[in-house]
Every structure is written in C-alpha cells, then in structure tokens.
Design brief:
The protein is of the alpha/beta class. Helices cover about 55% and strands about 5% of the residues. The protein has 13 helices and 5 strands. It has a 5-stranded mixed beta sheet with strand order 4-3-1-2-5.
C-alpha cells in the first residue's frame, strides 16, 4: 500500500495531468523495473553504468526507495510592454505561491505575477510528503494565497487576479484570446512531456533540472532523478500514443509554428502588449526553454523572436523563495 501511494505521488508531481494520464504514469512506474521488459533492462543498465553499480544492485536499491521518491512536474524589462504598477487598487500585503518548479500550470501563474510585478513568496512543495500544503484540502499545485485567501486552478487564479487588477473590466473572453488560452491547456502542455523525456539523456537532463530546483533531500534528489527519469521515459511513449503523436519533435515544432501563425505578424497576440494567451504560452514554455527540447524548438522554428520579446516584457521574477 505504501508503494502504491508513493507511486501516486510521483505521478502527480511529474505531470499535473488528468486522471487517465496519472494512471498511465502509475502503470509505467510499476513496470519500469519489471524483469519482463527488455527495454527496462536496457535503461536500467544505462542508469547502473552512470551510478557505477551493477544492474541488480541498482534495481534493488531503486525498488526499495521508489515509494519515497518523486519529482516535480530575465532579461531587462521592456518599458513599452510592461507598465508598473498595473493597478493601485490591488496592493495585497502577502501573496504566496505553492508550486513545483517544473509544473507548467505553476509557471503560467508565475508568468502572470511577474508580468504584473506582483511580489510573491515561493514555497516549493515536496511532492513526497506535501507537508507544505497539508493545511489545504486541495492537494494539487498551484495554490495561491492572497492575504490568506486560497486560490486554486491556474486559469481560475489568473482570472481572479486579472479582475482584482482591473476591477472595472470583465475577464477577456474574446474568441481569439479564449481560444488560445484553451489551446495551451488542452494541447500545448500535452506536447511537452513526450519531448523533454524523449530519450534517456533528455529524461536525465529534465530530472536534473527538476531535482536541482525542487524541494528534495539529497537522497530524494538522487533517487528521484534516476527513478523518475526512467519512469517518465516510458510514460512519454504512452502519452505519445494517447495524444496521437507520432513524432514528438515534429509535434513541438508544429505547435510553435501554429502559435507564431496565430500572431499574424503582431508583436504579441494582444497586439502591442501581451495578453493572457501570450502569458500562458510563455509560462508553460519557460521551464523547457534551455533544455535540449527548448533549444531545438527555437532553432528549428520561428518562435524565438516572440519568446525573446516575452522575456523582455515579463522581466525578472517578482518571486522570493522562502
């Protein structure tokens, strides 16, 4: 039972996905170290070689500690794109974001906060114990507390914050902006995992980032990096099938070009300034930008110029780590 609970925590930490995808992740985790899989033997041997261990020793050690492991799923500001402050009517005393560093939905919220220059504290949630959010009945991230009020679900959080910054305006629900915000949640995020876990080396690169920035002890970091990378390598193959992706890089490039085409020559989808759709796309892409998949995306598509403009517009992080 403890093993199953540990696997469930890992699935949620890695993906932030729906129930079906979490079941896929859990199934992959249960089968990653199975002796019946030839692919698993190959991956295990590669991990053993990196750790300097025999494969049986590695498998035994990881199997014994998997239930305790988990992994989590800048430039100068452009004065013309970013007006500070956004609203004198929204001056909260305390804003706290409970997050996983690599979670795309958490990064959507951070992009909005950073762009609007709303200072916030960052609390990195340990995906194993989740002790940082035991006070809440809601057990997913992101969770945002604004002067003690709990907000959940990334899109809902952004809508509420937008309304407080612009109390006399309704939430933008124009066909174009709404369409592309939904596209981010329903399509773009599902293209990312098959890309960042596409190969053994990319899976390890991704988990090196996740464990370096996440809230892990040394032991958890080591186990999560290798066990998580192995698990998500196999999960990514199942996600490809689930979302009808035949070539993960081609799907990523197509998504990037689809977004660039949507701009129709404008600086941003919002015109001269980013709108909520711009911030959503930028937010979910920001964690992968300097991984191999993100570098390949910028090199092989036309999204680079827009991304650089967004980096300038969003500016430096307004977050402070506890």
């Amino acid at each position: 039972m403890r093993r199953i609970n540990g696997l469930a925590n890992l699935s949620k930490a890695l993906s932030g996905c729906g129930a079906t995808e979490q079941r896929l992740i859990q199934a992959a985790l249960m089968s990653t170290w199975s002796s019946s899989s030839s692919n698993s033997h190959i991956f295990s041997q590669k991990l053993a070689d990196r750790l300097g261990l025999s494969r049986p020793s590695l498998a035994h050690g990881l199997a014994g500690t998997m239930l305790f492991s988990a992994a989590a799923s800048s430039l100068a500001q452009d004065a013309h794109a970013k007006e500070l402050p956004r609203s004198q009517k929204f001056l909260p005393k305390e804003v706290v974001l409970y997050q996983y560093e690599a979670c795309p939905f958490c990064n959507k919220v951070k992009a909005f906060l950073d762009y609007n220059n709303i200072p916030y504290k960052i609390v990195e949630v340990n995906p194993i114990s989740k002790k940082e959010i035991k006070w809440s009945d809601y057990k997913k991230v992101p969770i945002l507390k604004v002067d003690g009020e709990q907000m959940v679900d990334s899109s809902d959080i952004i809508n509420k914050l937008y309304h407080r910054i612009n109390p006399n305006s309704s939430i933008p629900d124009g066909d174009e902006e709404k369409k592309w915000r939904e596209w981010v949640d329903n399509h773009l995020v599902h293209v990312l995992s098959p890309n960042i876990y596409r190969s053994t080396s990319e899976a390890l690169e991704s988990f090196d980032y996740i464990t370096t920035h996440g809230n892990f002890s040394f032991t958890e970091r080591l186990v999560a990096k290798y066990a998580g990378a192995a698990a998500m390598y196999f999960v990514s193959k199942k996600l490809k099938k689930k979302h009808n992706i035949t070539d993960e890089r081609a799907a990523l490039y197509e998504a990037a070009e689809t977004w660039v085409d949507a701009l129709k020559g404008r600086q941003y989808l919002g015109g001269s300034k980013p709108n909520l759709a711009d911030l959503a796309v930028f937010g979910v892409l920001r964690p992968i930008r300097y991984l191999k998949s993100g570098k390949d995306m910028v090199e092989h598509t036309s999204i680079g110029e827009w991304y650089t403009r967004m980096e300038n517009a969003v500016g430096e992080s307004a977050g402070i780590r506890e």
